[in-house]
Amino acid sequence: MYEDCLKVLLIDYLLDVMPSDSLITCEMPFSDSKRRADVVCISDQTHAYEIKGEKDNLDSLIGQLKDYKSCFTSTSIVITEKHLIKAKRIVPKEFGIMLVLDKKIIPLRKASNIKRLDKLGLASFLDIKSLISLLKNNNIYPIKKHFINSYYLKIHACKKLSTNTIYEEVILFFRKKYLPRYKLFLKERGDVTHVEDLIYLTSLPDELI
């Protein structure tokens, strides 16, 4: 089964089980845009989903999961039966495993909450405007004009602010960025999600820079 088809099944499953204040987005850039999360469910927590379909392999999965663990409060992999035996063997126990079988999502292992996220990984979600606002709102000065670049602001925030403060800003940023698109998706979706609906949830190419 192709990845987009698995993604559609997962989204419909999440819409049935997630809290009402949650939202969903797809292809979210993270780890300084070096990676993209296939699906992310956002509430006051962030649960990321990495999808492995029939044409995928698990060779790079452990490296992917390491990056997920630094940026999201929980992560699950969504697999077809082809990958089941290997996934159970190699996927660390803190990650969830969900099986797609007969067009149904079957949770096999619940993901654990990651209590210690990486500050820089979190700060990397934020754009320059949000980083400046975060620093100013926490009375952190001065910010010299010739230092106003993304890298400097991320490092400055990580040195001066707690992980929890940065995380709270990230959640606000996600809601501002992704909620309008999610609402449009719900309006256009109909009774079930179709592959064509994914465009409303998917980050655009210029957002991956």
Our Rg estimate from Cα atoms comes to: 18 Å
Low-confidence stretches: none
How many H/I helical runs? 7
What number is the mean pLDDT? 92
**Secondary-structure element series:** HEEEHEHEEHHHH
Backbone shape: globular
Largest sheet: 6 strands, mixed
Category by helix and strand content: alpha/beta
Binned, the helix content reads: 40-55%
Distance between the termini: 29 Å
Strand order of the largest sheet: 1-2-3-4-5-6
Report the β-strand fraction as a percent range: 15-25%
Per DSSP E runs of 2 or more residues, the count of β-strands stands at: 6
Please specify the SSE layout and strand pairing.
Layout (H helix, E strand, L loop, with lengths): L2 H15 L5 E8 L4 E8 L3 E7 L8 H11 L2 E7 L3 H7 L5 E6 L2 E6 L9 H5 L4 H10 L12 H11 L2 H27 L20
Parallel strand pairs: 3-4, 4-5
Antiparallel strand pairs: 1-2, 2-3, 5-6
Helix pairs in contact: 5-6
Structural notes for this entry:
This protein has 209 residues and is of the alpha/beta class. 41% of the residues lie in helices and 20% in strands. The chain is built from seven helices and six strands. The protein has helices at residues 3-17, 61-71, 84-90, 119-123, 128-137, 150-160, 163-189, and strands at 23-30, 35-42, 46-52, 74-80, 96-101, 104-109. It has a six-stranded mixed beta sheet, sandwiched between helices. A hairpin with a 2-residue loop joins β5 (96-101) and β6. The chain is globular. The two termini are 29 Å apart. The mean pLDDT is 92.
TL;DR of this structure?
The chain has 209 residues and is an alpha/beta fold. The chain contains seven helices and six strands, in the order H-E-E-E-H-E-H-E-E-H-H-H-H.
